[in-house]
Amino acid sequence: MAVVDVINSKGENVSQVTLSEAIFDVPLKESVLHDVVRMQMARRRSGTAAVKHRSDVAGSTKKLFRQKGTGRARRGNIKSPLLRGGGSVFGPDPRSYDFPVPKKVRRLALKMALSAKLRDARLTVIDGFELSRVKTRDFVGILATIGKPGGLIVTNGKNDALKLSARNVPGVKVLSADGLNVYDLLRYPELILVEEAVGAIEGRLSK
Known about the structure:
The protein contains seven helices and six strands. The mean pLDDT is 94. By secondary structure, it is an alpha/beta fold.
């Protein structure tokens, strides 16, 4: 099991925490991470692109002119795709881009992403952010003190003061342990775990 130092908001080592090998020491497989990130990004797509087909266009269904004898091409009604204002033929329709990935694979990918952070020395455990008020300056000061310009901050439950103080800081995102996901772990170079969140993460991934 890996033992990691726990620091406070002043950058001082105050204790140590033991991380589970089953979660923070998992071999990396890029294909698994790739599949899960693709799934997450596909779920974010709105899939609302659409066009009006022939049956959707408002217009008369009357035949424009007789079939023969005019010397012109045969015409049906004014909603024909060949006419201006007519329906579209092969345009997109609303759809879902979502595709399933097994729960075990999603959980494994999350363990791999956490293991990669620990292996690359990009994981920091802090006992808590001492913010008595919503103030971006105070939050940025704590980051500067602990030597982290930004990253993904994971808390245990809601922390409104922390979330509101960090919302305007570029390169920083605050998540609860329940919302931890592979995409955000890979997107942000640094991972900062509030000490209480470690137990929540291990409890979530050990099921």
